[in-house]
Design goal:
ten-stranded mixed sheet, 13 helices, three-stranded antiparallel sheet, single chain, alpha/beta, binds D-gluconic acid
């Protein structure tokens, strides 16, 4: 079997997605997700101009070889653009391999370690009451784990609480750690009192804190028994976790901005986190995820792969195939997609009673309706940026 053609499909059914379609001379094709929110076309161009021509005529069976060829073959390696492009190719190759074998990808990865995949979704509000109301709705839908975020009074916009924050020019939020650090423990006190202890709670600090701030927050949240506290520090400050880890019992998670196993290495081998939560679309796909999962297993770290709505159903399915296969799975993030997504992408994880499953189909289990995709043309949209009160740029 040979790779005959590579299509890069950019579509915007509610938000932008970049999909790689690898076609073979035997008529079988595979799909991969190569979406990098806010920088989509840089990845699409990389795929079309540089990677696609290298793949024509290659045997799609040799995934590791192709992966290394694209990773090392550019000389320039790593980074979100190249690793997202590589992820799109990698997932599409796994999809083809599954279709050729007539087996779901998890079966090729070793088979099922579990029957269903525990997941969490996002809950947010402008005030505590709104967060509680939404949390109760999600609990009624069956969720057993929720990530909760609340707007910080006095600040313009807060990560995780602004609807439709992707704009033609970046929406500018303000950030100040002090009011944030005051209000978050109060939110958890309120939620534990109002909705009880049974539900798993998660909170995302989105890489915005200094070490001392992060430690203070982690310590104050101990009594609210979080499943984990996410992304306390910026990815450039991995050493900072050494100062936090031994002083708090709050479980820690990190990794959505990582692009490789080497980005994750220190946190895993020093056991500085409990959950590694890389984004399969940004680390080169399933191949790298399996390596990171094995590394994490060695050091007793669990997985919680990134699963926002800004990666496509193809990536969400890829997450699940890995979640099924590995032994050190922790939990899976599942953000809700815009409604139009189902018009373009046929197949995605199924939710029931707090858990996800995937349809038993060969490959990844997703198809794309290219005609429908063409009805939703790309619309440039930036993520927000964040400013400190003095106008300097802060982590979003
Ligand atoms: C999460 C993430 C996302 C990112 C988004 C950026 O935990 O799901 O933090 O919400 O902000 O993926 O594009
Ligand atoms: Mg996050």
């Amino acid at each position: 079997m040979q790779i005959k053609n590579i299509k890069v499909i950019v579509t915007s059914p509610g938000r932008n997605y970049v999909t790689v379609k690898i076609e073979t001379d035997e008529g079988i094709y595979g799909l991969g997700d190569a979406t990098l929110n806010g920088r989509e076309l840089s990845v699409a161009k990389t795929l079309e101009e540089y990677l696609a021509p290298l793949l024509i005529g290659k045997d799609p069976d040799n995934i590791e070889h192709i992966w290394q060829y694209l990773y090392k073959g550019a000389y320039w390696r790593g980074g979100p653009v190249l690793m997202t492009a590589l992820a799109g190719i990698d997932m599409a190759l796994w999809d083809i391999k599954g279709k050729v074998a007539g087996l779901p990808v998890y079966s090729l990865l070793g088979g099922k370690s579990r029957d269903k995949i525990l997941c969490y979704t996002h809950v947010f509000g402008q005030n505590f009451q709104e967060v509680k109301d939404e949390a109760l709705e999600k609990i009624a839908e069956g969720y057993k784990a929720l990530r909760v975020q609340v707007a910080i009074p006095g600040l313009k916009g807060t990560y995780g609480t602004v609807e439709d924050d992707a704009r033609t020019l970046p929406f500018v939020e303000t950030w100040d750690s002090r009011p944030y650090l005051n209000i978050i423990p109060e939110l958890f006190e309120f939620l534990r009192t109002e909705i009880g202890d049974e539900i798993h709670l998660i909170h995302d600090s989105h890489e915005r804190l200094q070490v001392s701030e992060a430690l203070k927050l982690a310590k104050e949240l101990e009594k609210y028994d979080l499943l984990f506290l996410e992304d306390l520090l910026k990815p450039e400050n991995k050493d900072g976790f050494m100062q936090i880890r031994n002083q708090t019992s709050t479980p820690l998670a990190m990794g959505e901005l990582f692009n490789s196993k080497w980005d994750a290495l220190l946190l895993i081998k020093e056991q500085l986190i409990d959950y590694i939560r890389c984004d399969l679309s940004h680390i080169g796909g399933i191949t790298e995820a399996m390596k990171i999962a094995a590394l994490a297993e060695t050091f007793h770290v669990k997985t919680a792969w990134h699963g926002p709505a800004d990666i496509s159903p193809v990536a969400h399915l890829a997450n699940l195939h890995v979640d099924y296969a590995i032994t050190n799975f922790g939990i899976q993030e599942l953000a809700e997609f815009p409604d139009q997504v189902d018009k373009v992408f046929k197949g995605r994880p199924e939710f029931r009673d707090g858990y996800l499953t995937i349809p038993d189909k060969p490959g990844l289990g997703c198809d794309i309706d290219e005609k429908a995709a063409a009805e939703y043309p790309y619309k440039k949209a930036y993520l927000p940026i964040s400013e400190s009160p003095d106008g300097s740029v802060h982590e979003w």
